[in-house]
């Protein structure tokens, strides 16, 4: 459930430099002439985003997630707080009668005024950074694309504009964090860990509030009624969302804000707080904790550096905004993506030099594969194949598809570079990095390995979901493509 890991496709963007461009340009969606939509930008509306009709398996899956996803998060966090991160100890104690659910719940900290104050301040600060400070990083950082950018064409043919300033928000937030830690001392760097479970309840309150509001908004006052989908099933509508791009005013976009801020900006702050707590408890920070902080920070900074590219991911291009994104971004992402750092607070691991070096190299190799694979695809699309991939002109398969208006379009599917090795090798790089985070924690407990297990399931599902959509879109041309590139993730294996 993370926006950071949702990778997808298409359209181009147009840069409008400077804060004045944001003020002068129309922030509301504009209608694009369907006759001017480029190849790859238009797909039959009925195949976009979430389903129109819900079968029994989808409904069962939705109800399962709505019931058990919050319990999973609670169970993982509680197991660290009360059982030293053992996933089996709570079950064993309940089975043997040594403990009960009421005992566990009685020892769980509740929401506090302190936690509520921290959380409200945090979210408000991120809203201010998102809404009030136009991006200036693109003016002095070579290669960085920020400021006002266009998103993808929606199923109804709308094009939203976004103020891309996530990197700026991340930099300001972390500069203030370090300034506080070393100069001002307004609060302890361990503040997040010290209030971790009370903050969980605050995050849940926000997640459910924004998800419920998004559902009501979709029914009563949608941003664009033509981009809404209703199945007639309340649970599916609540989880997967009704509105495609819910907004408040011209610039507050629910998808962009809740995926990156407060969730991903918080990711690195949470890890820093865990490192500070390890220092407080044991007098030093282990190399395993340093590796987790560095490798995950690399991923987070990469996300914000390429935030404009995020506008082309499956979140923006296909998913509607419901509980899946709203609650997931507020709770699932910050609490389960940071389990390695949390584990290391309770079980400090000092890796041998060969082990630490292997983890570092695996993490960096995964990042390089992920980034270079995406770069190759972007370069191929921007140049229409007139480029060099690994020193050669790329090979590709010509394909065609029919859009909703009945017009036939032509497109190209690259079969060179990383994309000639496997159809989703960017996901492979993602999984290599995920495994590196987990390996940094040693082999004593299962809990820190939840992340790579979850990411494997998520990305394999993404592969299948993406390929089903492409198969329906390209037909026999897709069969030619899969024959040329037979494996999905692992060359020669899968």
From TrEMBL:
<dbReference type="GO" id="GO:0047598">
    <property type="term" value="F:7-dehydrocholesterol reductase activity"/>
</dbReference>
<comment type="subunit">
    <text>Interacts with DHCR24; this interaction regulates DHCR7 activity. Interacts with TMEM147.</text>
</comment>
<comment type="pathway">
    <text>Steroid biosynthesis; cholesterol biosynthesis.</text>
</comment>
<dbReference type="GO" id="GO:0016132">
    <property type="term" value="P:brassinosteroid biosynthetic process"/>
</dbReference>
<feature type="transmembrane region" description="Helical">
    <location>
        <begin position="282"/>
        <end position="301"/>
    </location>
</feature>
<keyword id="KW-0753">Steroid metabolism</keyword>
<dbReference type="InterPro" id="IPR001171">
    <property type="entry name" value="ERG24_DHCR-like"/>
</dbReference>
<keyword id="KW-0521">NADP</keyword>
<keyword id="KW-0152">Cholesterol biosynthesis</keyword>
<feature type="region of interest" description="Disordered">
    <location>
        <begin position="17"/>
        <end position="42"/>
    </location>
</feature>
<comment type="function">
    <text>Component of the microsomal antiestrogen binding site (AEBS), a multiproteic complex at the ER membrane that consists of an association between cholestenol Delta-isomerase/EBP and DHCR7. This complex is responsible for cholesterol-5,6-epoxide hydrolase (ChEH) activity, which consists in the hydration of cholesterol-5,6-epoxides (5,6-EC) into cholestane-3beta,5alpha,6beta-triol (CT). The precise role of each component of this complex has not been described yet.</text>
</comment>
<dbReference type="InterPro" id="IPR018083">
    <property type="entry name" value="Sterol_reductase_CS"/>
</dbReference>
<keyword id="KW-0472">Membrane</keyword>
<keyword id="KW-0560">Oxidoreductase</keyword>
<keyword id="KW-0153">Cholesterol metabolism</keyword>
<keyword id="KW-0752">Steroid biosynthesis</keyword>
<dbReference type="GO" id="GO:0160020">
    <property type="term" value="P:positive regulation of ferroptosis"/>
</dbReference>
<dbReference type="Pfam" id="PF01222">
    <property type="entry name" value="ERG4_ERG24"/>
</dbReference>
<feature type="transmembrane region" description="Helical">
    <location>
        <begin position="196"/>
        <end position="216"/>
    </location>
</feature>
<feature type="transmembrane region" description="Helical">
    <location>
        <begin position="434"/>
        <end position="460"/>
    </location>
</feature>
<dbReference type="GO" id="GO:0005789">
    <property type="term" value="C:endoplasmic reticulum membrane"/>
</dbReference>
<feature type="transmembrane region" description="Helical">
    <location>
        <begin position="167"/>
        <end position="184"/>
    </location>
</feature>
<feature type="transmembrane region" description="Helical">
    <location>
        <begin position="351"/>
        <end position="370"/>
    </location>
</feature>
<keyword id="KW-1133">Transmembrane helix</keyword>
<comment type="similarity">
    <text>Belongs to the ERG4/ERG24 family.</text>
</comment>
<keyword id="KW-0256">Endoplasmic reticulum</keyword>
<keyword id="KW-0756">Sterol biosynthesis</keyword>
<keyword id="KW-0812">Transmembrane</keyword>
<protein>
    <recommendedName>
        <fullName>7-dehydrocholesterol reductase</fullName>
        <ecNumber>1.3.1.21</ecNumber>
    </recommendedName>
</protein>
<dbReference type="GO" id="GO:0033963">
    <property type="term" value="F:cholesterol-5,6-oxide hydrolase activity"/>
</dbReference>
<dbReference type="GO" id="GO:0005640">
    <property type="term" value="C:nuclear outer membrane"/>
</dbReference>
<feature type="transmembrane region" description="Helical">
    <location>
        <begin position="56"/>
        <end position="77"/>
    </location>
</feature>
<keyword id="KW-0443">Lipid metabolism</keyword>
<dbReference type="GO" id="GO:0033490">
    <property type="term" value="P:cholesterol biosynthetic process via lathosterol"/>
</dbReference>
<keyword id="KW-0444">Lipid biosynthesis</keyword>
<comment type="function">
    <text>Oxidoreductase that catalyzes the last step of the cholesterol synthesis pathway, which transforms cholesta-5,7-dien-3beta-ol (7-dehydrocholesterol,7-DHC) into cholesterol by reducing the C7-C8 double bond of its sterol core. Can also metabolize cholesta-5,7,24-trien-3beta-ol (7-dehydrodemosterol, 7-DHD) to desmosterol, which is then metabolized by the Delta(24)-sterol reductase (DHCR24) to cholesterol.</text>
</comment>
<keyword id="KW-1207">Sterol metabolism</keyword>
